[in-house]
Amino acid sequence: MSRMSRVALALVLCSCGGPDQGQKLLSVSGEDSNAALIPGQGWNPVDGSIKGNCVTLGAMTTQSGQSAGQTADFKLLEITSETQLRESLGVSASASFGGILGKGSIRESFAQSVSKNNQSRYLLVHVRVSNQLEIATSYQFTDSAIRLLKSAQSKTFMDQCGSEFVYGRRTGGEFFAIFEFSFLSSEEDKAFSAAISASGAGWKGAAEVNTAMSGFNRFSSTQVKMYKVGASAPLPEISSISTFAANFNTLISNAQGGAVTLELITKSYEGVEPIDLRPNAELLVRQRYVLEQLGRNRDIAREQLNSIRFIKTHQDHYDLSSNSSLDDAERDFAAYLNLVNDAAVSCFEDVMKSCKLPSTVLPTVNLPAIKSGVECKNVTYSQCKLQGDDGACIAYEINTREICK
Fold first, then answer.
1. Are 265 and 24 in contact (CB under 8 A)?
2. What does each of the 405 residues of the chain score in pLDDT, given as a tens digit?
3. From the CB of residue 375, how many other CB atoms can be counted at a distance below 10 Å?
């Protein structure tokens, strides 16, 4: 089998995204019908529900007072867990259960489409171009909200207004590219680790990202998945690390143009005028805690299940004494995922009585190791580097690629 594997390209194009838990909601845009929030609107950050307008905002302004100004951030990371993948895309644990409630975000769907397993290695390239943050200069409760708070109707207030409201926004654009690398031998895996160490993966400038990515050219990716927020121009076709580098400037330009709502900033109702009125948000504390734990357990179980299925699909490259143990583990993890999803639904429905972790313990499995000693060899090939006026090649570039079978 040739190590030069086929590349499946998946493009997810939209100008929308999913909410993040807490004080910052990442990439919530008006085009996402599941999170069509606007400044002043109430929000429940745990179940992702949109509430009414219970505050009146003052004029929006930037922190600097100037409307101009743009920043660009570049990130190259190795993704080592399902939880890290989810959080890198700005999806909270509670928001990640949105799909089972019929209101899942596109970012969560994108994260699931990667099918992260612990037998492959993953690189994330993230470019974010953002304009200045706009924030409200003042905020005060509406008359109807004041009546609820003065009559001590905190639960009704939470039902109508949520525990937070949107008071700031930032426009811009961003894109994510996730490369999956599957190896046929432990030697290849070690070589990839060495390339990661040499790249110094982390925050970088655009040129540094390209330089670092060139170190992975000798590894064939099995999948390239991309997600774009903002800009009307389509993404270029990307089939490998090399073509990604060649189109990197185009991708940055796409992120800079066609700005959409990149993030909405929320805050609790504490400090809203009149400041002596404040709703009781303690009901959400346990729900947030339980859903966070459920989300992390679900991430682990999902990654283990993906890993088992990956190994069963590539049995020739693993030391398998018996398939029965993997079959049993596959059933155990699938059943556990159903329990977690049921627990999440119950937690959303009844915070007081049914919001709890399942008694069933997270399953475990001993995964077989990939075989060592797979035959690999370096193959030298040439490419035309310069053509003459007649179209004939007048300069070649010699390259080497590792082929394993």
1. yes
2. 333 332 333 333 333 333 333 344 433 443 444 567 888 999 888 877 889 999 999 999 987 777 766 787 778 888 999 999 988 888 888 778 876 766 667 778 888 888 899 888 998 888 888 888 889 999 999 999 999 988 888 788 888 998 899 999 888 877 788 888 887 777 788 888 888 888 777 767 777 777 777 777 777 766 788 877 765 556 666 666 667 666 666 666 665 666 677 788 888 898 899 988 877 777 678 888 899 999 999 999 999 999 999 988 888 778 776 556 888 999 999 999 999 999 999 988 887 778 888 889 999 988 887 776 555 444 444 455 555 555 555 454 545 454 445
3. 9
Give bridge partners of residue 181 from the DSSP assignment: 121, 221
Residue 122 to residue 37: CA distance in whole angstroms: 33
Q: Which amino acid makes up residue 147?
A: R
CB 283 within 8 A of CB 347: no
d(CA 256, CA 156): 43
Cα four-point dihedral sign 31, 9, 110, 341: positive
**CB distance 396 to 383 below 8 Å:** yes
Cα dihedral value 5, 6, 8, 9, nearest 10: 90
Residue whose C-alpha is closest to residue 267's, from 169, 367, 201, 160: 169
**Contact between 31 and 44 (Cβ < 8 Å):** no
Taken in order 102, 103, 108, 110, the sign of the CA dihedral is positive
Q: Contact at 8 Å (CB) between 18 and 27? A: yes
Distance between CA 79 and CA 67 in Å, rounded?
Answer: 35
Given its phi and psi angles, is residue 258 left (phi above 0), alpha (psi -120 to 50 degrees) or beta?
left
Count Cβ atoms within 10 A of the Cβ of residue 67 and give its class: 0-12 exposed, 13-18 middle, 19 or more buried.
exposed
**Quick one: tokens of 353?**
């009585």
The number of residues in the chain equals: 405
- Tokens 């939880």 sit on residue: 83
User: DSSP class of residue 384?
Assistant: E
3-state DSSP assignment of residue 271 = coil
